[in-house]
Amino acid sequence: MTTPPASPRPSSTSRARSKAAGPSFPESNRPQPFASSMKPLLRNESLGHLGEHLVDGRPAELPTYARHLRKRICHIGVGAFHRAHQALYLHRLLQQGDGEGWGLCGIGLRAADRAMHEALRDQNGLYSLWELEGSSRRVTVVGSIMDHVDASADSSAAVALMADPDTHIVSLTVTEAGYCLRGGALDLAQPDIVHDLAHPAQPRSAPGLLVAALAARRAGGLGAFTAMSCDNIIENGHRLCGAVLALARQLDPALAQWIEAEARFPCSMVDRITPATDMARRERLCEDWGVDDRIPVICEPWLQWIMQDHFVAGRPALERVGVVFSDEVTRYEDMKVGLLNGGHSAISHLGLLLGHEAVHHALADPLIHHWHAGYMREVTATLAALPGVDYAGYEDALARRFSNAAIEDRLLRLAMDSSTKFPQGLLPPALRRLEAGLPIDHLATAIALWIVYLDGLSRDEAAGLAYVDHDREGLIAQARAAVASGNPASFLAARLPMPEAGAARFAGAVQQQLASLRRLGPKAHVQALAAQSR
Predict the structure, then answer these.
(1) How far apart are CA 32 and CA 207, in angstroms?
(2) Which ranges of the chain have pLDDT less than 50?
(3) On the chain, which terminus has fewer CB atoms closer than 10 Å, C or N?
(4) Superfamily of domain 38-153+272-301 in the CATH hierarchy
(5) CATH says 329-533 is which class?
(6) CA distances from 327 to 40, 204, 306 (A)
(7) Could you give the CA distance from residue 351 to residue 442 in angstroms, rounded to a whole number?
(8) pLDDT tens-digit map of 219-262
(9) How far apart are alpha carbons 322 and 324 in whole angstroms?
């Protein structure tokens, strides 16, 4: 079986501030917001009273460690996933006394990050993490984020923080768009990159921020840091390295050579289903707990992190809380991206076309459940053996995770950003099956369902506007043309480019499934596919 969840469970940028005895977040004298006059806001001073506030008869786990930051990890992009994953791993390490002074300082680059900055400031960096499955709810107050910098308008403080000798690691969760790549190379026409080339000391992009900080360290005679991608992207460390080096070469080839020689960019595979927490859900959690938390995180119990042990200036002993350090990250990625990410994409469009909204409702539909099992079998057959991993057990675990009603995950969330997700999740296993001379009925059906769903958005303005993708208009227009012509070849060439040797077979397989979908409709088509696979 795969690596289980980790166990056991139990802002100034100056160096003086980073070494202060206690959390780095300054105390605020302004009136603090409350969900109601009877609920205390989650802050340092309320921790001593939280034992009185029970969830399902149990108190929340509270930080027991002194929040001293001596070895800094700067993290760009403090969203829900980071707080459910990396920040929790570090919290658990600190809880058991093995943190050795490590702590997180968040950095918000986007204007949209300001709300998180303000909430973290008001709550002294504390937030609640709710691990939900069935009727079980486990609440942890996480304290590993000890500072946060708003770099959305002025990034100079963030650059100085990253260039400080106490910073050893800079990690990031900025999604694929945040790497500013196009076709695998740095997009020199991307607006933030254009700005950073003109104003390298005031960067707006994540690659620009890393380059500026590394340049400052080099100028000050300091060594480089480790740049650690925590994004759900194949070969994330290599992609980050490529973006940083490409930008540095444009600015200063000698700096690029120094970064290439001195910095490290480990690849990692990250896994935890973490849906967004909307206002209604937040209010329900606060009501159940009796505590006002403006930024709670909801997630599943499953937690996994596989990472290369490529660090230049030390690292926390994260293996003590379940992180696996391995040189086989790519093989773990093939498994996770094909089965989990690809599986999410595959079931999302079928579920939506059949009228479902929640992921667990879709998996409770016998037709979708059976079709999803067939999809996983197609993908698993393409995977190389991985020591210690039972693929059948992993498939069963995924089916249970997708069926977790407690996290209330939505199909629309899984369906969005499909122009990024499909090439990563479905194209590699389809290519491997075609190279082996194997059929791709379920994979081709998933792609045809995607095209049909996108075509439907062209006739539903409200649904189309609710669908988030960085190239939504182009994606929908190409899908509409594919359905109108009955030929998806142009769509596939643009969105899922296949090597020439397999392109015709690939397009033919998708065209066959698309024609059947248009003739029979999604339900009857999937029923017919199930009958063929028996």
Answers:
(1) 35
(2) 1-23, 28-31, 33-37
(3) C
(4) NAD(P)-binding Rossmann-like Domain (3.40.50.720)
(5) mainly alpha
(6) 46, 33, 9
(7) 15
(8) 999 999 999 999 999 999 999 999 999 999 999 999 999 999 99
(9) 6
